[in-house]
Each structure stands twice: as C-alpha cells, then as structure tokens.
Amino acid sequence: MTGTPETPEQDGTVADAYQGNWVDRRAPMQTRPYLRLSRADRPIGTWLLLLPCWWGLALAMLQTGRAGWGDLWIALGCALGAFLMRGAGCTWNDITDRDIDGSVDRTRSRPIPSGQVGVRGALGWMALQSFVALLILLTFNLNAILLGILALGPVCVYPFAKRFTWWPQIFLGLAFNWGALLAYTAHAGSLGWPAVALYLAGIGWTLFYDTVYAHQDAEDDALIGVKSTARLFGETTPRWLRRFLVATVSLMALAVILAGIDRSVLALVVALGGPWAMGWHLMWQLRGFDPADSPRLLRLFRSNRDAGLIALPFFAVALML
Predict the structure, then answer these.
(1) 181 near 194, Cβ under 8 Å?
(2) Do 238 and 297 meet the contact criterion of CB atoms below 8 Å apart?
(3) DSSP H or E run through 154
C-alpha cells in the first residue's frame, strides 16, 4: 500500500528549493534546518552576491594593470564571504518576515514559520555566520574593512523595505552589490569611480532580476499588503525591465571605460564585450517573461547566475592584452 507523499512542511524541505539538493540529500540531519535557513539549498543568491565582487576585482585589476597572488585570496575570500553573508542576511530576513512568510504559499515551508528553527536559534546562527565572515574581512586592507562594516546598514534595512516603499528591490540592490565596491577597494586600496559606476549597474541588474522574481508572489503580497516593484508595475513590467536592462548595460560599460581608459584600444573593446554579452542574456530573459508562469519566472531568475558570469571572460581576456 502506498502512503501519501509528505508535503514540504512535513519532511522539512523548502518548497522553492532545488529538488534533490545537497542539503536534503547529504547534510547531517540536525544541520539541515539551519542550512535551509541560510538558503544553502538554493545557491543562486550566493552567486548574485558574489558576482559583483568578482566584477569589481576584475575592473580594479584592469585599471591598475596588475594582478598577483593576493588577488586570488580576494576572489576566494569574497566567495566564502558571499556564502556566509548571504546566509546571515537570509537568516535575518526570515527572522523579520516570520509572520509574513507563514501567510505565503511559497514561503510557509521555510524553517522558522514551519517550526523547524526558533527565533533564538536563528539569531545565534546569524551571529556565527557573521563572525566567520568578519574574520575573512579582516584579512583585507583597512578601506575594504570599513566598507564591509558599512554594508551592514542596507542589509539590516532591506527586510523592512517592503513595508514602507514600493521599491524594496532598490534596497536589495544596495545590499547585494556592495561587493563591487569592497572587492575593487581590496585590490586598489581605495574606492574609485569605476567601482561606483559598477555598483549602480549592479543595482539596475537587481531591479531587473528581483522584479521578475517578485511576480511569483504578487497575488499573495497584495492580500497581505506587502509592497514590491512587481505589484507597482503590473502589466507595464516588461517596459520597466527594458529600462533596467539598458541602465545595467550602460552603467557597466561606463565602469569599463573608466577602468580601462589608459589601456590599449583592443583591451577596452574586448572588456566592453562583457556588458554587451550580458545585455543579450537579459534580453533573452525579457523575451521569455510571463508573469502568469511561476515556474518560468523562477527559471529566469536563476539564469542570472549565467548572465553575471558572462561578463567575466571578457574582463579576463582584456587583462591579458
């Protein structure tokens, strides 16, 4: 006799996680609720936090014309830090949103609203992740350390943004793209205009992909009064996505020009291929956008790992010219 399949709330899995992910299959049972709280079963968020770091590091090397073993540590340190701080940020987000998440179909299976983790345990887990990330940050130069500490501001504010503004995605962009400033400074020693332009490009990118993502919850958000650009734009969303695409590509191109202005023309042209290629990927996403198709929305959102990676080979080749 076949039993009734367990729901996500019953077996501890999260509804919008990758099916058969490593947390559900291989992680020790007692660690799974905490890893799910950190979204370790959904790596796309770590990628979206990490990629602006690698962009910033690449542009700093392009501008200074030097690369060394220390840059390998910056790249690795950013990867470890992105995993940890994404986990800490998601934990904080779930603590503040625990009542809202329990009212939304897609999120009610998360560890706190489903009862797998208590608020006290979540706070301790957040503190542990943040402390380890701080140890990594302390290996960078002083200006990068100061920028890393300042990043806590937008991280803390973001979960509350959807309560007071229709543009919470801007606050997410401020937090998720801070690594462009930090990694650039970790290499260059100080902040520069290429990093600022790149940071703004990343915010445009975040507005693009998180508006797509937010359309999954638009109906539930309307019922419980949560604000988002998806609800604000409604049927005009494709028009706004096109604007965010243009802003992303234009600002990233400006960052490349500012960073490579003293390099050869060929190197500059190759580096400009990065934002150009990324723009084509975003255009592909825009053509596939359908607000009524939640599985497609999630696939498009996840494809932004590839969109962000596309620019890096162009930057790498430009460095060698």
Answers:
(1) no
(2) no
(3) helix 152-164
Q: CA-CA distance, 248 to 288, in Å (whole number)?
A: 19
State how far the Cα of 283 lies from the Cα of 243, in Å rounded to an integer.
11
Cβ proximity of 182 and 244 under 8 Å: no
CB atoms within 10 A of CB 150: 12
Mean pLDDT of 5-22: 63
Specify the amino acid at residue 125: W
Other beta carbons less than 10 A from residue 26's beta carbon? 8
Give the closest residue to 267 by CA, choosing from 43, 59, 57: 59
Q: Answer yes or no: is pLDDT of 283 > 90.
A: yes
Please name the residue that has the structure tokens 């390998």. 72
The number of beta carbons lying within 10 Å of the beta carbon of residue 164 is 9
The CA distance from 188 to 186, in Å, is: 6
Residue 195 burial (10 A CB sphere; 0-12, 13-18, 19+): buried
pTM for this prediction = 0.90
**Averaged pLDDT, 180-184:** 98
d(CA 133, CA 36): 18
The residue whose two tokens read 């996840």 is 302
**Range 129-132 contact pairs with CB under 8 angstroms and sequence separation of 24 or more:** 129/38, 129/84, 129/85, 129/87, 129/88, 129/91, 130/84, 130/85, 130/88, 132/84
Q: Helix, strand or coil for residue 3?
A: coil
